[in-house]
Amino acid sequence: MKHNLGKMIKLFIALSFVLVFAEDFTYSFHLDKQDPYLKEPVILTLDLNQSNHDIVLMFNFDLQKSDDYFFQRLDTQETDTHHNTQIHYVYLIYPLKFGEINISFDLIKKVTTDDSVAYSFSGDRDNIKGLVTTDTQITLPSLPLSVKKLPESTTLVGDFRLIHKFKKYKAKAYEPIPFEIKIQGSGYPPLLDNLLPKDLKFTVFKENPIVNATHSKQGTKSSVIYPMALSSDKSFDLPPIGIKAFDPKTMKSYELTVPKQHFNISKADVNTLVDKIDSPKPLESNESWFTTIFTSLLSYLVVFAAGYLTAISLKWKKKTVPRANSPLKNKIEACRDERSLLQLLIATDSKEFTTSIEKLENSLYGNTKINFKKVKQEILEKII
Amino acid sequence: MNEKIIQLKQELGKAVIGQETMIEGLIIGLLSDGHILIEGVPGLAKTTTINALAKALGLDFKRIQFTPDLLPSDIIGAQIYNPQDHSFSIKKGPLFTNLLLADEINRAPAKVQSALLEVMQERQVTIADETFKIDSPFLVMATQNPIEQEGVYALPEAQLDRFMMKLVVKHNSEEEELEIMRKGASKSFKEVEKVLSIEELHTLQNELEKIHIDKELEHYIIQLISATRDPAKFGLEKIAQNIMFGVSPRASIDLYKAAKAKAFLRGNTFVTPADIGYVIHDVFRHRIVLSYEARAKGVGADEIISAIVETLPIP
Fold first, then answer.
1. Chain B closest-CA separation from residue A375 CA (Å)
2. Domain end position, chosen among B173, B199, B225
3. Interchain CB distance below 8 Å, A342 and B273
């Protein structure tokens, strides 16, 4: 009789609404359970209803992030009337810590006018007009949850089954043996860091698990595939795998198991494993060690001499090329008289030849006599 | 060389080390009443030289720092409404001066650069419905930086043509650089003093008029001008494809005046082909419109001018 009364009280608390009146709106919470097990799904519904219909009211609402719980918004239903805003939120929550935890909320009340709404609608892609609102941070009371501890060594919470698939049990030495373990069912997503026992005497190759999860009001339906491969040079046993699980609905513990597996490994043909392309056999030589060293030394000397001579030849080239290829020098050498030389110097637009230009001018347009060859030589020396 | 010119050069030498080509180009512009465009990378004393010239001449000097948000009314002036007597009055802009330094002219958009067109050519400014004459001498000396591409605007051809010469300023020699470094570090640059009055400048300009230029040289100038417009006619088929437009008639006037000024600076009473050769690059380089092929091949106006001078026989 006592047990029945206790259950009835709990049920009443769980199903009861918390209805609160705030300025301009009312809000109500509903939790489907208040004392869940660790990682047991809890459904939270929240209703925000506008009570002051003279204003345009909007809300920004979400749960606060916390290490104590994981949450997922499942549904939002909102009326599109500006003076009678009604929003219905549904959240799925998984407690991640046992004991007393609090679910906290972020709520911002945004008040605006019809004119502001109309103005914001008048904008377009290239001329965005923001909606001006008066925002008020609302502090909502936290919702307490009394989280129950799981039975000892429980790894998974929910109703799951395990499927294992080994592609082969016979392989050659070091040949990978692919296999996968799939855990599927409903409950907190069955993601495990270490599925296989530690200190195995063979090599295990792992890939990132492939996770598929769908959240709904009934909880989370998920499947996690762990692709792996084993490899060894001799036959070995994969020890049995046992994962302890607990189903909060039935309040019973159970174990997901993979029985011991034996793998037969045969020796591989070494010749087929040797890389003959990138690691060919070293060349065998009939020559004596003296001949080999002498030949190597000689080849090093030849390469060194070639490099040294190339460097020297570049230096020679650097010195000789500009002299041979200077177009101005060639043109100056081709000048046969003072007039053509003067014309060429004027065309160069260089202030270097001012003195020579004056000498040539004095000769051409004045009475001064000059030594043409000498002037030409002076100019050539300036270029060089 | 004229004593006053020597004094002017010495005075400029107090503020500027080296850069003789730029200084001489500015003096040529001053004597010939021609506007000068100076192009060079930052730090080559372009603005310093022009400032020093203004001080040495004791002329009214204004400086406009061209910026992208400059408006034509900021430089020519505007009509201002006076609310007290409900009348409009003219507020004259910085153009009303003798020496105008248009610093970094290519930083302003074309509409502002174009505001200078009337004053550079006609020596007058029109504000609203009123036209004002600018006092003589009036010289625009503009600087531009060729290396920046962001935030600069190319000068319109019509405005470029109004500049008598475009001087390309190059880096100083190592010896000059050493002197700049030492003087700059010890702050021992001397103050430039006035050495030339307006009357003396006018006298020099009158002396310039007396410089003789032979008819053959006049003909030579016309041939040089024509060669930029129709290079094939002068056996310059190779450069024909590099020129989109040759130089304008203003170029022949400016080359004529600049050659005379150069001869004057060299202390001669007559012009020689070398005088023309000394200034032709500065007078022509901003007036030759290069073709797409020339720009694609990296051929510059100076190369084209050199090819023309090299080909046409001097008198």
1. 16
2. B199
3. yes
Segments making up each domain of chain A, as ranges: 2-147, 156-272, 327-383
Q: How far apart are CA A139 and CA A336, in angstroms?
A: 101
What pTM did the predictor assign?
0.53
Q: Is the Cβ pair A346, B276 closer than 8 Å?
A: yes
Asked if residue B275 and residue B132 are part of one domain, the reply reads no
Residues B46 and B152 in one domain: yes
Average pLDDT value for residue range B287-303: 88
Indicate the residue type of B77. Answer: G
Q: What is the pLDDT of residue B190?
A: 72
Partner-chain contact B273 A349, CB within 8 Å:
no
Query: Is B87 within a domain?
Result: no
Decide which of B163, B179, B199 is a domain's last residue: B199
Asked whether the predicted pLDDT for residue B147 surpasses 50, the reply is yes
Q: Do A346 and B20 touch (CB under 8 A)?
A: no
Q: Are residues B226 and B121 in the same domain?
A: no
What secondary structure does DSSP assign to B159-198, as a single string?
HHHTEEEEEE--PPPHHHHHHHHHHHHHT-PPPP-----H
Answer yes or no: do B274 and A346 touch at CB < 8 A: yes
CATH number of A156-272: 2.60.40
Please state, as a whole number, how many other Cβ atoms lie within 10 Å of the Cβ of residue B123: 14
8-state DSSP, A107: E
Domain total in chain B: 2
User: Quick one: CA dihedral A68, A70, A74, A76, positive or negative?
Assistant: positive
3-state secondary structure of B222: helix
Cite the DSSP H helix spans in A110-239: 114-121
Q: What's the pLDDT tens digit per position in A6-43?
A: 444 444 444 445 666 667 888 888 889 889 999 999 99
SS3 content of chain A, % helix, strand, coil (to 5): 30, 40, 35
Q: Does domain A2-147 have CATH number 3.30.70.120?
A: no
Residue B215, CA distances (Å) to A16, A157, B233, B268 in order: 115, 110, 22, 17
Tens of pLDDT, residues A310-327: 988 887 876 665 555 677
The CA-CA-CA angle for residues A180, A181, A183, to 5°, reads 145
Question: Which of the four pLDDT bands, split at 50, 70 and 90, describes residue A376?
Answer: confident
Number of neighbouring beta carbons within 10 Å of residue B84: 5
Q: Which of B21, B281, B313 sits opposite A343 (nearest CB)?
A: B313
**What is the ipTM score, two decimals?**
0.79
pLDDT band at B224 (very low <50, low <70, confident <90, very high): very high
Are residues B157 and B250 both part of a single domain?
no
Residues B50 and B144 in one domain: yes
Query: Minimal CA–CA distance to B8: which of B63, B38, B49?
Result: B49
Q: Do residue B151 and residue B241 come from a single domain?
A: no
Which letter, b or e, does each residue of A49-71 get, where b requires 16 or more Cβ atoms within 10 Å of its Cβ?
A: bbeeeebbbbbebebeeeebbbb
Q: Which among B21, B277, B307 is the nearest to A346, CB-wise?
A: B277
Q: Which of A347, A358, A365 sits opposite B310 (nearest CB)?
A: A347
Orientation angle between helical segments B46-57 and B20-32, nearest 10 degrees: 50
Same topology between domain A2-147 and domain A156-272: yes
Residue B171 belongs to a domain with what CATH number? Answer: 3.40.50.300
Is residue B80, in this structure, part of any structural domain at all? no
B229 & B298 share domain: yes
Host domain of residue B226: 210-311
